[in-house]
Each structure stands twice: as structure tokens, then as C-alpha cells.
Amino acid sequence: MKNQIQILLKDFIRDVAGEGIRREAKNFLGIDTGAVKTGKIFTIMYDLTEDQIATFAKKGLQDEVIHDVYINSFYQNDFYKSFVLVAQKPGVTDDEGVSAQKTLKDILDLPLDTTTQHIYTENIYLLENSLSDDELKELAQRVLGNKMIQHFEYGVFTGQVDYVPHVSISGEHQMKTISLDIEDQQLVKLSREMVLSLNLEEMLAVKARFADEEMQKKRRDAGLPADPTDCELEVIAQTWSEHCKHKEFSAMIHYINKETGEEIDIDSLFKTYIRKSTEIIRQRLTDAGNNWLLKIFTDNAGVVKINDNSVFVWKVETHNSPSAIDPYGGAITGILGNNRDPLGTGIGGGKLLFNTNVLCFGPPHYDKELLAGQLHPKRIMDGVRKGIEDGGNKSGVPTINGSIIFDERYSGKPLVYCGTGAVMPYTFAGVHSWEKPIDDGDLIIMAGGRVGKDGIHGATFSSTELDEHSPQSAVQIGSPITQKIMGDFLQEAAVKGLIKCSTDNGAGGLSSSVGELATISGGAVVNLEKVPLKYPNLQPWEIFISESQERMTLVVEEKNRKALFELASQREVELSDIGYFTADGYLDVRYGAEKVAYLDMEFLHNGVPRKYMEAVWKKPQLQEPQLPSKLDFTKTLHDLMGSLNICSRENVIRQYDHEVKGKTTIKPLMGPDGKAPQDAAVMRLNFNSWEGIAVSNGILPRYGDIDAYQMSAGSFDEAMRQIIAVGGKLPDVMDASNRFWTVNDNFCVPDSLYHPQTNPDGKLKLAKLVQMNQALFDMSTFYNIPLTSGKDSMKNDFKAGKVKISVPPTILYSMVAKVADVRHTVTSNFKAPGDLVYQLGETYDELGGSELYQLFDELGANVPLVRKEAAKKLYETIMKANDASLLESCHDLSDGGLAVALTESAFGGNLGADISLDAVGDFSTTVALFSESHSRFVASVKPENRGVFEALFGTQAKYLGEVTAIQQLIVLHHNTKVIDAPLATLRKAWDNGLVQE
Amino acid sequence: MKTVKALVITGFGINCEEEMAAAYKLAGAEPSIVHLNDIFLEKVSIHDFDILNFPGGFSYGDDLGSGKVLANKMKYRKLTSGKPFMEEMQEFIDAGKFILGICNGFQFLVKMGLLPNTGGTFQQEVTLTRNNSAKYEDRWVYLKKNPASNTPFLDGIDMMPCPVRHGEGKLIIKDAVIQEKIVDANLNCLSYCDAEGNVTSDYPANPNGADLNCAALTDPTGQILGMMPHPEAFLSFYNHPNWGQLKRQNPSHPDEGEGLKLFTNIVEHIEK
Fold it and tell me: What is each CA distance from A451 to A448, A551, A947, A990, B47, in whole angstroms?
């Protein structure tokens, strides 16, 4: 029995959602919809009486102040000539339907099942104008929804809606076996058809293992067929995926540097550079007796010590492939999945403190023809932004910092970096919170959402290039409310000592989470029939690898089982007891009486064949461009302020909650009008002390077109100097106050495996990756700033037919540093007229890869070089200056160089500046204004502090001029006025760079 | 002097409970954060407290309209003993005790009919819905107090800066009769204003386009206050987006944020 309820705004209530759609259709598609009226339809499949439906509609759904309600009929009005209906496809998350179920249960006080879907929601849009089917389809697919996950109906509304996205899967549970006793070519075909993403060598390794006599005997004894089961092949594929095993970062690489003649064999980039650098730093800290590195590179996130009572946990990851297909779903799943990393580190149950996100998109005005399956960069940007908004805001986690980079090469696959920090107490019920003990006999408890087909093959899928046939089941939509309820529960359970440890169910689902935990105890038995499902008839292998979201796997001792289940029921969290850990060396997966997988842990985790790769570096032949000889600097500065990579992100930033929790003290935008962009974000850790952290991101992909080493080193420096700018302090191994720094590295590169036809420049790409790692090692060990966790994403290419759009090799360094007292931090905007303005640090003729050259479509050759000895000396001087409270403002120089930083510091404070470039050095005006040399700042100082300040800095500080009350930027060079502009027009250019309305 | 006990409700997507509890602690009260279900299960009684607080958040993800699902839960659910939760609320109010709802908390107080409650029967009289900008926004605004408001929460406050963080904060009043009652009784206790204190309907000083430019409502007794802006996010001076320049202008500026005043007000009022 189906009932339908429609809720829509009364005619006299302003339909702001409808207005937004009308605007979007006009601006983005050039379609004139006329007035748009929005409504929502609830299709209810519970068996209810007419009275019950009426009560539910009026009490449960309607807001009587603004809504009209229709029961089993729909609003119709001849004024609206066309309509579009948007419904979820079967099996796609419908949170609002579930919330409606819960409120129905509360109102009618009935024992209804609310764990599976019985109420479906659909959006209906009534349009004033009569539009063609083509226009309506365009509107539906490009503004109102996404055909990957949504069903559309459009045309002239007949007053009837029949579609119900009920999931129905026919067929019995059936375990298949697959013979590997086939030719090589067939093996490759099999891998492709099953979406295993295993190459021939890997398939052969599996084949060889299954041909092993001893193994065959064990299988017979355990009651398994001789050939691998579907579940076994799937588990191996998940476990061996690039996503889970990082095969390229573990590969043996032969590296030739043709520039220097160097030729080396690198036994794993990860071990040689990333882990090694942190191990060196940990040794130095340990030797000094001040080790604050508690956990590195194991578990879901790294852990450092804040003080004797608390530890800091954090992780930054990417969610690129899913965001290319369904930007909203990809991003929200990314941010929620990333939240579960610190939530599932050690014992688990940390308190989430903040999110950060860094996004790389194609330009929003991209006008090339879209390839099959490619979404327009603006759609990707809007969807990702919304996903981050909902993922953060609805979870109550402030998004305190981020960055957006535009480059046409991100038009195929965007990069979506999500980071989350959390705080855990030093101990939970007497046990170190970051430890992860598991013993034979401990229970495996799944918590949170139910399992459906969603996300099947996510781990293997993200390890391949995208094409137009990418499977729909790879897309999932996160449910922040489900996760929030589960996260709250987990924190409570951890404090009560009810969970022994936990982990997140992310890529690979249960197969990965249980598979990885089982390496601690040495085995596990899983009973898949006990896993609660969203809808019946999933195959056992699907249950095991499904990536349905908002799930954690808990390790629980039998003695705590009852209390844990009781707490879960009070908190309305669904738990299921799905097996136990063993020590017999096998992952033993069953469905009822049937064994569906029986894999030895050693082979599963260490059996993947080692990759061998080749890298060859050849320096590109580049030269500096000829710019127009008479550059109008005032105009150029306006152009730069409005350029995509410099202009204001305010519209994006304000849609993220950056101050929930009440602890953010340096937010992304500050100053009297909230227009001053800041460098690092600063947050208090609690309300009892002024201790805090500074959070920053460094990313400079364009420099990599000239020099990948300098790009990586420069990105590291950028993240560091942002923290120095706000008053952070470099680590000191002799310092006993846990002045920690912790870095997440995230490499996102195009396919770097050489292939003569499909990837002829693979060796060069890999060489860039090697150099990026070498820079990481050099910077990290020089400053004692350790990497504690990270991620690599290796196939960021979008393919359609013969066309390939590949991202530039990109590295993001995300940094967190402890700040002793947030009251002594420094913001970027000028504070008072009359203050003296200085440039700190040296300028060089380094416009290669700059935003200025970008304006003229040039790359250049003189990439900014990192000079770490000089930079360190400067940073130490700044630290001393901050100890003496000498800096009124400090802003790091990055995109657009000195001119842009000066402009931002001035308009950010509603002030102006009178500047002379003469002290900057013996450079052309262009270089002095726009060079992007690293490790520089614009700072302002009270006039009375001039003497102390200049004595402290010496030649490291270049006197530029004064802050003025008049909001005008005036810049002289050798007595010639080179810039004279009202800050209001500069700010306007900056404000409007991304605004499209 | 009595210790004031503040009950801070959490669960189901509420997410500002910690700063709310911190506000009471800083104001000298004793806060307890309690899951709503523990009240339904009668593990905790609201009557053991002086102030009942509904913090901000995204209860049930704003599904069905902000605050709606949680409002329904409180309005229609019974405690384990069979007593309707609304009866508990009625008794709590009759005892002269106080209720504060911020942001999402305000949204469900309104949808439960506790605010403005001009009719005294807990019927919904106003709603909070989509901002005219059609966007969720986090920005700082100024609030001007209605000088005739009787609520002790706002004693001694004339104007204060505060962050708003919502997508559905536009107050819509059901009809002219209710609007008149609200205005006559000065229940619209805080309005959005510009930096000079002039009440305004101009975006972004008025972030959502609310009727009467209203940012907060009380009930006729003044015991219940609901507001969209977040005073609990301004407990420290360093929460203010312009603390840098303000500190320069007044180097001995206290560390305390202006939002705390609202909490010390009510705690001191109860202590008396």
C-alpha cells in the first residue's frame, strides 16, 4: 500500500530555493525557467491507515506557518507549464526519508522498522515556462541532479508520480568458484571483467598460490573448493589494491638523473624518504629525551603528544575519483571518511577538532567540449563545495582552513584533499589511547550504518583511470547524521572503557578493516550472515567488500559486550556481532554454514609481487619570457587580484562553519570587515588553557612544470612559513614542552608507469615523483618537522577514447604545530595608521611559474628556490620578534608576491599604505612587485619599536614605508610612482574574481 | 549562594554542547551535558536543574526542515513512565525556571511551540526557515537589544557582536495578529543591526531577511529565550574576527568575550 504526501511552500511564502534554481539555470545553462516552485514528495510504503497518514502529514511533515500539504494528490496550477522530478535511484542514500521514518515512529508511537528504507523522498520543481524536453533534461542533469545517482522525470506535469526507487535483487545466495588455470591473456581479461584491477603478474601470483599443494590440502581440510571463490579473489584484489597497498610507493625504482648523471636504485620511496625522515627525527627527539612522536605511519592516523593529558591525532586524504563522477557524494564521503580516520585510531573515540580541505579544479569558465563522462569544472566545484559544507557543518566540525587551486589540467579529475584533526585523552580507562591491542577471542562488532551495494569496488576503482564506463556502484553519498550519532556513541563507549580498539570501514569495507585488524591478533572468523543489510539478497562477497558508509569495526572483549550493546541501544546505534579474532593465521569468512573465503594472512598481506619502475629526469628547456615593455603596474595588480588563484574565496569560506566548538581564534577571514585573508588557522584546544595549534597547507603545483624538487620543497616552506607568520615556533629537539609539528603528505600524480604507447613520458613523471620525495626528506630532516601520516593517489588521469587529461604532479603538505598561547598570535592585516611596513626576507628574480606570468600565459624558467639555511635564520628572528611582541601584523608572500600581500594586508585592515620598493634590492619593478621568492613576509611594526626591530632583523628586514589611514595603495620605485590605486577598487577586483552572478 | 545547575541537552546531531557547557562553567554555574534519551529513559530529570539548554547543531541533518524531527520527538514522545515530555516542560516553566535555545535549539523551541507562545498553549506561531540568500553562512553580525524586553538573559546588554551560522534562520511570523502580540509584548528581544546600532533589513548585516529583523525571541514570561546567533561562540575575546585591531586600540582588553555576558546574566539572576 503506497501513500504519497506532498509538502510545498504556501503561495505567499518566498521560494528562495526556487529563485536560486532560476538564477543558476539562467547563468549556467542560459535557460529561462520563469518562476520556479519547489516541493517535496514523500512516498510511504508502511501499511498505515488514512488517519495515520493524515496525522503524519500534518504533525510530522508540515510546518503550518509556511507549508501546504497534499495527501495522495499533488499541487497543480496552470501557471506552471513544465516540471522536473528528481528521485534517488534505487539504493542511493535517502537520509531525509529515514528521518521521516523516525519522526513517524515518534508521532504515532508504533513499533516500525526504521533501519531499512520505507519512506522515499523526491523533489519536484514546477517551472513557469514551457520548456522543451531537451532543455528540461539539461536542467535536470546539470543543475538539479546527477544522472549517476538520480532518476529524472520531466515534461508537463500530469498530477501523478509513480516512481518508487525500491531495491529489489532477485536470486539466491550463490558462491561461485573461478578457475585460474587459464592462459595469461584470459587472466588479464578476468581481472578486468571482475574489476579486480590486478595486473598479469599479480594474477599469476594468485594462480601460483592456489596451485600450491600444501595450500590445496589445507583448503580441503577446511572444506573449501580447490579453485578460489569469488569472495577470495575480491578480498585479494581489495587488499592488494594500490589504494590499500601503495604498490608504487613501495616499488623498486631505478632512477637516472640526466642533469647530474646520478643513477640510483630506490628501494621504496616511502621507506627511503618519508618514513626514514621521520625515523631520523624521532631518534633525535628520543636522544634529547623529548620524544613527542607517539605513532607514525601505522594505524589510520599519526599521533603526537600535546601534554600529559592529551594527544593530537590527524589525517589528510584525497577523494578524487568519486568526486569526478559525483562531486557532492564524492566530497561528503571524503570528508566523513576522513573523519573516521582519527575516530578509529588506536582505541578510537577521539573528539574531532577541525577539518581542512584543499581543492584543485579546472577553471569554472572552462569552455572546451566535455569528454564522455566528464563533468564541467563548475559543476564539480559547486558539488564538492556543497559536499564539504554538509560533511563539516552537519557533523559539527569546523572547517578552519583550506585552499582552492585552479588549473586546466584538473578539469578531468579534480583533487579533493580532506583533513581532520582530533584530540584524544592520553589514556582511556588506564590504557594509552593510541594503542591497538587485539587478542585471540576478542569480538568483532560492526557499528553504524547498514550494508548495501554502495561503493562496491571503491578501492580497486580509485586505483584505475576513469572512463565513461566507470561503475555506478562506485558512488556513495555519506550521511553526516548517521555518522555523528555513531561518533558520539564511540566517544562515550571509549571513555567508559567498553571498546578495546576500533577502526574505520573505508575502502574495501569489512574485508579491509577486519583484514587489517586481523594482522594484529593473527586471524579472524567472520560470519557474514550476521551483517545487517539495507535490502536482502546481497552476495556474500558483496557484503564483505561493500563500502557502505558510516561504519566502524569495534574490537570488544566478551565481558563488555552486554554493557556496550545496552549503551548502543540507548543511543540508537545499531551494533552487530559478526565474528571474532583468532591467532591461527587465517582469514576465515563464512556465510551461515558455508565457508566463502579461507586465506592465509601471510599471503594476503605480503604476497603481492613487488613492482619495478623506471624514472629518468631530463631538465626541460625553458626560458624567461619577454613581457610587454610598458607594464601598467596598477592595472596588472588589479588583474592579479581578480585572477582565479588569488581572488577571494569568501563565498566558499562563509558557507563552511569555521567556528563551531568556539575555539577558532584565527579564522580564514579576519579584520574589521571580515575581508582579511589569513595564513595559518589557529585554534584553542580547550576552554581551560590558552594552548592551541596552528594549521596550514602548502601546495604549488605549477612550479613543478619547471622543477619538481623546488615545487615540493617550496610547498613545504609555504606551509611552514604560514605557521611562522601567525606566531608559531620551529621545533627544537631540546625543548621539553612538546612543541610538536606534524605533517601529512599527500601525493597526487598522473600515471607514472612507463608504457611506450599509452604513457610514453611515464619515466619523466616518475622522476618528478622521486624528486618531490627527495625534497620532502631534505626539508623535513633539516627542520625536524616530521611526517606522521599521509597518502598517495597515483592514477589521476581522465580518459575518454584516445584523449587523456592528466593532473600535474601535485604534493600537498598539511601542517599542524603547537602554539603555546593563542593570545600571542599575529594576524595578517595592518592594525593602525602610522605603523611601519617591512618586507622580511630576500627577493630574487624568480618569476618562473608565477601568477604574473600566468596572466600572460607564460611559464618562465626562474622557479623560486628554497634557501633553507637563510629561511631558518629569518624564522628564528621572527620567533624572537614575536617573543617581544614586535610584530603588529605578518602576512606570508605567496601567489602574486609582495604587491598582492601588501594589498591584502592593507584592505584587510581598512587601511592604506605608502610604499617605496627601493630597499627591496636591485631589481626591476616587475620583480620587486611580483616575484614569488619563498620565505618572505610583509610585516608592520609600531613606530616606537623601530629601533629594537631593525636591530633585531638587520638586513633581513627591508623598510618599505608606512600604513596610512587613507585607503590608497601608493608604491614608488626610484622616485617614480608605479602603483596608485584605491584599496576599494583592488578589493572589489579581489571580491569579484569568482562571483558569477 | 546557591550553585546554579545548567542542563545542556545533546544527541541526534546537536553539536554546540561543549561550548554551551563551557559558557556556564565560566559563568560560575555547574553544567551537565546529557543525552536527550537519558531524559526520556528517566536516568536524568530536568527538574534537578535550573536552566535547560538546547544548543545549536544539525539535529537529524535538518531533514524535514531545521529542528523539525527533534521538535516532533520532544512534542510527541513520552518518558519511560508514560508521562509526556511536554508535561515535564510545562512543570519546569511553571516552577519559574529558564530555557535557552540557540540556533538549532531556537529552531526546535519554535517548532515545539515554546516560542513565542503568545497564546500560552504551545501552538506553533512562527517558524525559522531558509535565509533569503538561500545559503548557509557563517558571518559576524551586530545585535541590538529591544530596550523594553523583560528577559533577564539580556540585562545590561545594549548591542553585541556575535557570529551567525545557519541556513535557516529567517523568522516568519504566521499572521498579523501574532506579530502584533510579539511587538506589543516586546518578545522580539534582539534585532540585527548595523555597526552603528541601527536595526536593518539590509544583507549581510541582517543575514537572513527575518520578519521584524528579529534575531531572538522570548516568551511573555521572559524565562525562555531563543536566538539564532551564537553567544556561546564568543566566550573569548579572541573569537572576535577583529581582535587584532581591537587589541591594538585597547592593549588591556579583557580576555573575556562579550557573549559570556548572557550566561553570567542568567546565572547571577538565578543565584539571587
Answer: 10, 9, 68, 46, 41
Instruction: Tell me if A275 sits within 8 A of A297, measured CB to CB.
Output: yes
Given an 8 Å threshold on Cβ–Cβ distance, is A481 in contact with B127? no
List of E strands, A128-246: 150-155
Do A103 and B64 lie within an 8 Å CB cutoff?
A: yes
Q: Which of B42, B127, B138, B252 to mutate to test the interface with A (most CBs of A within 10 A)?
A: B138
* Yes or no, beta carbons of A655 and B65 under 8 Å apart: no
Q: Where are the domains of chain B?
A: 5-271
> What's the CA gap between A902 and A838, in Å, rounded?
10
Using CB atoms within 10 Å of the CB of residue A47, give its burial: 0 to 12 exposed, 13 to 18 middle, 19+ buried: exposed
Whether A96 sits inside 8 A of B140 (CB atoms) is: no
A659 contacts in B (CB within 8 Å)? 138, 163, 165, 230, 233, 239
Close Cβ partners of A10 (under 8 Å, ≥ 6 residues apart): A66, A67, A68
* Contact by Cβ (8 Å): A825, A726: yes
Q: Can you read off the three cell numbers belonging to residue B120? A: 500560552
Considering only the beta carbons, identify the residue of B22, B138, B172 that sits closest to A657.
B138
User: Which residue is catalytic, options B16, B19, B88, B103?
Assistant: B103
* Nearest residue in B to A65, CA atom: B174
**Residues B92-151: tens digit of each pLDDT:** 999 999 999 999 999 999 999 999 999 999 999 999 999 999 999 999 999 999 999 999
Query: Of A406, A394, A244, which is closest to residue A332 (Cα–Cα)?
Result: A394
Cβ of B64 within 8 Å of Cβ of A99? The answer is yes
The span from the CA of A784 to the CA of A149, in Å, is 47
Rounded to whole angstroms, the Cα distance separating A217 from A221 reads: 6
- Work out whether strand A443-448 and strand A427-428 pair parallel, antiparallel, or are unpaired: unpaired
Known catalytic residue at B91: no
From chain A, pick out residues whose CB is under 8 angstroms from the CB of B38: 570
Using CB atoms within 10 Å of the CB of residue A639, give its burial: 0 to 12 exposed, 13 to 18 middle, 19+ buried. Answer: middle
Burial call A925-938: b when 16+ CB within 10 Å, e when fewer: bbbbbbbbbbbbbb
Q: What is the mean pLDDT of residues A790-812?
A: 91
Give the span between the Cα atoms of B8 and B18, in whole angstroms. 9
Predicted confidence (pLDDT) per residue in A268-314, tens digit: 999 999 999 999 999 999 999 999 999 998 899 999 999 999 999 99
Rounded-to-integer distance, Cα A189 and Cα A184, Å? 9
Determine the Cα–Cα distance for residues A583 and A598; give it in Å rounded to an integer: 14
Sequence-ordered list of residues with C-beta below 8 angstroms from that of A306, at least 6 positions apart, any chain: A312, A423, A685, A691, A738, A740, A818
B61 vs A contacts (CB less than 8 Å)? 95-96, 99, 390, 394, 479-481
Which chain B residue is nearest to residue A480, measuring alpha carbons?
B61
Q: Is A421 within 8 Å of A314 (Cβ atoms)?
A: yes
Reported as type and span, the H/E element at residue A539 is none
Q: Is B240 a catalytic residue?
A: no
In whole angstroms, what is the distance from residue B69 CA to residue A572 CA?
A: 15
Which of B162, B232, B240, B258 is catalytic? The answer is B232
Residue-wise pLDDT tens digits, A421-468 = 999 999 999 999 999 999 999 999 999 989 988 777 655 555 555 554
Instruction: Give which of A433, A305, A298, A426 is closest to A693, Cα–Cα.
Output: A305
Condensed to tens digits (0 to 9), the pLDDT of residues A877-913 reads 999 999 999 999 999 999 999 999 999 999 999 999 9
Instruction: Establish whether B16 is a catalytic residue.
Output: no
CATH 3.40.50.880 at B5-271, yes or no? yes
CB contacts < 8 A (A, B):
193
Kind plus residue range of the DSSP H or E element containing A476 = none
Angle at A660 between CA A656 and CA A666, to 5 degrees: 80
